[in-house]
Input
Amino acid sequence: MIKLLLHSWLFSLPYPDGVSQPQSGLSQMLQFLKKRYRGLKMKFRTLKLFKRRRDARKRIRTTEKGVQALIIILALVVFLLAGCSYRMVPNETKIEYGTTETDAKNSKLQEKKFITQTWKWNKR
Output
């Protein structure tokens, strides 16, 4: 089908002086295909270039986030190990014992124990 269309297109064109009809049609077709190929080639190169730039931006973004996380972690470690002059110490401890009646029928007693502890910050 395509061959028939191409053949009819080649032989239906008027030919200039001194050039036979098939050569004129072929040369025009060849020029058209070359232009089309160049256009597609440039478009493909541009798309490849855009993809490379996008990938590079993603790599930079992920690297920057990783570096930021590392800096924050290191700052916290340094702050906690070297810069912190306070520590948590127990302030008050209460121990409570007691018995409560659990069931009226059985009259069982249940023993309860509570330990309550409070903490405070203290300088070293």
About this structure: The first strand starts at residue 86 and ends at 103. Helices lie at 2-12, 21-83.
